[in-house]
Amino acid sequence: MNKRIVYVEDDAQSARLVRMILNANGYDVEVADSTEDGMRLIELHQPVLILMDINLPDIDGRQATIHLKHSAYKHIPVVAVTALAMRGDRELILAAGCDDYLPKPFNVQDLLDTVQRHLTETAEI
């Protein structure tokens, strides 16, 4: 099974942590520090899952997700991994097209469970 994930995250420490956790659990993770780089990696690697920060320096993660969900990549699940955790943030993020929402800080098991759930759902389609 393809276990390639693209993580769009501008915080280098968060990116390193998620990559380390997922690599240790058998996933192949490509990290982009901007939406533009993320789109390039998605096109290049055809991942089975996209982890998307919302507060990005160029195009925010909501706008990037809207774009993805109206493109050839609309079938790829997008999970928002974000510090936006105020009342209503989850709903706004899901309304933009994200398939799931994982607030930071997250616990490692929640990250692994979320990734596995989406890969299992994708494999069943």
What order do the helices and strands come in, and which of them pair?
Blueprint: E1 4-8, H1 12-24, E2 28-32, H2 35-45, E3 49-52, H3 61-68, E4 78-82, H4 89-95, E5 100-103, H5 108-124
Parallel strand pairs: 1-2, 1-3, 3-4, 4-5
Describe the structure.
This protein has five helices and five strands, in the order E-H-E-H-E-H-E-H-E-H. Helix content is 45%, strand content 18%. It has 125 residues and is an alpha/beta fold. The model has no long low-confidence stretch (mean pLDDT 93). It has one domain: Rossmann fold. It has helices at 12-24, 35-45, 61-68, 89-95, 108-124, and strands at residues 4-8, 28-32, 49-52, 78-82, 100-103. Strands 2-1-3-4-5 form a five-stranded parallel beta sheet, sandwiched between helices.
CATH architect. name: 3-Layer(aba) Sandwich
Which parts are unreliable, with pLDDT below 50 for 5 consecutive residues or more?
A: none
The radius of gyration is 13 Å
- Characterize the overall form: globular
Number of helices: 5
Largest beta sheet: what is the strand line-up? Answer: 2-1-3-4-5
Q: Secondary-structure element order, as H and E?
A: EHEHEHEHEH
Number of domains as seen in the coordinates? 1
Roughly what is the average pLDDT, rounded to an integer?
93
